[in-house]
Write a structure and sequence with these properties.
about 80% helix; 6 helices; flat; mainly alpha; about 120 residues; single chain
Length: about 120
């Protein structure tokens, strides 16, 4: 196994042993035992993703407010909050990893990406 492959293996192992991953897997298993709740969580996540990726800035605040209002009671469920918080922590771990790698590599696409 080459040096990069070994580093990838080590990184994957470290991620699987991280508190963020362990926490996320634990609550994921709990939520998975309640298919109705799991379905609602995924619908909420999908709707939240759509709001975050809305190009229409005028509609953004209205969509975000509506999502928040419609889910006040839903978010009071401790398993829902734990799932979403654990998922966010795990995603932030990936962001830190990606940033650490990208900041150390000199790679030029040769063009700018338009949003």
């Amino acid at each position: 196994m080459g040096q990069v492959e070994q580093a990838i293996e080590n990184l994957a192992k470290a991620i699987c042993e991280s508190r963020e991953y362990v926490r996320y897997q634990k609550i994921r298993e709990i939520v998975h035992e309640d298919p109705q709740l799991e379905k609602k969580i995924h619908a909420y996540r999908r709707d939240n993703y759509k709001v975050q990726n809305t190009k229409d800035s005028a509609a953004l605040l209205e969509l975000a407010d509506r999502l928040e209002r419609e889910n006040v009671e839903f978010r009071k469920n401790p398993n829902v909050n734990e799932y979403l918080d654990a998922e966010l922590s795990f995603c932030r771990l990936f962001q830190r990893i990606n940033w650490a790698i990208v900041s150390k590599i000199d790679f030029d696409l040769g063009f700018e990406l338009d949003d």
